[in-house]
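I hope you will forgive my troubling you with a question about protein structure. Here, with my thanks, is the record as I have it:
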Amino acid sequence: MSRGVVNVVLYDIEVDAASVAAFIDDPEPFVDGRSLSDEERAALMEWDVGKLYALGAHPFLLLQAARSIAVHRGLTMPEFLAEYRTAVERHGYPDFIT
């Protein structure tokens, strides 16, 4: 896994509201030209939080990016937390050392 690269993408998504909106509209520019595996690229393009978590994305960066996307989608905090928990809990405690 290119954990460091995935984490940079997560940071780039979450850096500001315009970036969040741009990612939601078209995730391709966020993954183009990055050294990502096919699995990582697909997880980012499909915004599969559970898969990113299982692949070892840094939990704090993933949580923050997911929260920003959820806010943009109009989810309340309890709705977001329930959705996030459902996505990640089946994967247990992943190896997220970068």
Summary: The two ends are 10 Å apart (CA to CA). The domain at 3-89 is CATH 1.10.700.10 (Protocatechuate 4,5-dioxygenase; Chain A). The CA atoms of residues 3 and 98 lie 6 Å apart. Residues 59-73 form the longest helix (15 residues).
